[in-house]
Each structure stands twice: as structure tokens, then as C-alpha cells.
Amino acid sequence: MLRIWDLRAEFYDLCEGSALRRGPQKASLFRNMMGRTLFVATGTGLDIRHFPPLREIVAIDISERMLRKAEARRRNYRGVLRFVQANALNLCFPDGSFDTVATSCTMCSVPEPIPVFREFHRVLRPAGQLLMFEHVRSRNLILGLALDPMTLWTRLVGTEMNRDTLGNATRAGFRFTRIESAYLDIILSMRAVKGRLTD
Amino acid sequence: MKLPSVDTVRVVQVCQNHEHDRLRSILFGVGDCLFLMLAGAAATLATHLVHRVDWGFAITCLAGMSAAMAVQALLAISVAPILGSIEAMTPSMVVAMASSMSECALHVIKRELSWPGSCGLGAAVGACTFVFVVAYGAACKRSLRRAYPRG
Hints:
The complex is a heterodimer. By secondary structure, chain A is of the alpha/beta class. Chain A has helices spanning 2-8, 12-15, 19-30, 64-76, 113-123, 141-154, 165-171, and strands at residues 36-40, 56-61, 80-85, 98-104, 124-135, 174-183, 187-194. Chain B has four helices and no strands. Chain B is elongated and about 80 Å long. Chain B starts with 5 loop residues before the first helix and ends with a helix. The mean pLDDT of chain B is 89.
């Protein structure tokens, strides 16, 4: 897993260069970052430009090479932005230590989404918020069937195209307060709050 | 000279943002439509060329569809930095599948198209898929707005 992301760091900016299209929607979602914020899977820091200024943000990534590439973007941020190399499956932060957890195209790439959501749930303070800009499997029959075979080869580079991220977050104890479509019902801009943990 | 109030300035800014958003969505719409038509034409042409080498119906169809998928994937990867990876890849996959299957269906009923005809068929499938994507996108937005009204 770590090797894949270290390798992808080299050409990540080229492949994920769709900020032109998704940038304003990401900026509109991240405007809601409040209090101490944990940003998960920073990558090469492409999303830093969409962060609102003057926030206190801890940004993590599993790959040290990604974080090294993101360093210049971190220095340009007008606020407190700290990088930590960490695995989303095992966050090195105490319980209830963040007011907001934010992700951007992260939940398609973690190997076990529900345990990761449970980690978010743990590090969030009571009633803390989760902001997600994620792609999910379409509910439309034709588009859903197109995303399934795509997953067969995107999985090789660590990305699943057909995840039920809404269901996974709900199962981990989050309650959605707002969902907006960024592209059909595939790319969604989501806000959720920490609810009661269910098994 | 009377200066405009803060509220007036805000209203003007909101209007300008709406104009900017509309222009962006129109430009991306034009880009999506042209790309889907191109992907359809190229994928159908690839299938058409494979059908000219007659290896038996099943193998020809399979090879034709694989060629269409490969062409579509290459085109989608090349426009991804502008149109977005998922925004380019997902509908163009539908276009490549549908246009390639149409070519195979015509082959079954012994109606062979010329290569410009194949390109036209692919472009038409691309345009139809674009209309479907726009309609489905609007339906998704409406349904989410109803489920999660802005507070």
C-alpha cells in the first residue's frame, strides 16, 4: 500500500489535475472547516489551495514522499498547517482532539473504509463534523455497471470506483446533514456530524 | 458622492459569482459533449476496423469491444486534467460500450457501415449519452436539494 502511494507521488499532480473543474466545489465545502481540523490523505497538497485561510489544520498522509512533495504548498498556506505522516487506519491522535475531519477523494483509496470512519469518529469531539469530497458508486443502473468494471483495473493502483461511502459512514456512526452533487450522483460534497456509534 | 452600501456590494458579488458559475458550467458542458462525441466516433471506428478482420462473430465482437475500450480509456486519460478523471472516464465508458455494441448488432443483421457511417453512429451515441448525463445530473441535484434543503 505504502509503495503504491510512494510511486504515485511521482505523477500524482498530473493525474489529479482536475482542480479546474472541482476546485470551486471543494473550496465551498472546505469553507466549513471549523476549529482544530484534521485533513486526511493530503497527497501532494493539491487541495491546500482550497483551504480557507487562518485555520489550524493537521494534514496527514501515509506516504512520506507525498508529504515532501506537498511541502512547498504547505509553506504558502496562510494559517497553521502541520504535516504528520500517519495511517488513517490507526490515527496517532487522542480521542476527541479535533472539531473537524476533512477528506478529499480519500475513502476510495483506504483498504478498509469502516475502520477508518471509526477512527474519524474517535478523534472527533462530540458533535464534531466530517467534511467529505468523495466519489461513490452511482445508483443509476447503467453508470453503476460502468463503474464496476472500471474498478477492476483502478484497484491495481489503489482506487475503488464503486464504494458505498455514505453507507459506510452511517454504519460508523455519522449522520449526514448535507449532500451536494459535484458530478451526477458519483462525486459528492458531503457534510456529516458525529452521532452515536453503532455496531 | 454616495457610496454603495455593503449589502449592495454583496448582491453584486453574488450575481457576478452566479454569472461566473454559469459560464463555467456552459464551457464544461460544451467540452463534455465534444469529448463524448469524439470518444464515441473513435471507439466505433476501432470496432469497425476490427470487424473488417473477420475472425468469427464472438471473437470479432470481443476484440472490437476491447479495442473500443482501449481507445476510450486513452482519450479519457488525455482529457482528464481538464475535464476531470471521473467526469471523462465514466460516461465515455458507457459511450464506448453502447457504440461498440451497436456496431456488432449491425454486423449481426449484415448491415455493414462505411467508416464515416461508423464515426457518425459513434458521435450520435456520444451526443445521446451527453443528453442523458445532463438530464440525470439535473435530477440528482434536484433530489439532493429536496433531501437536504439549504438551512
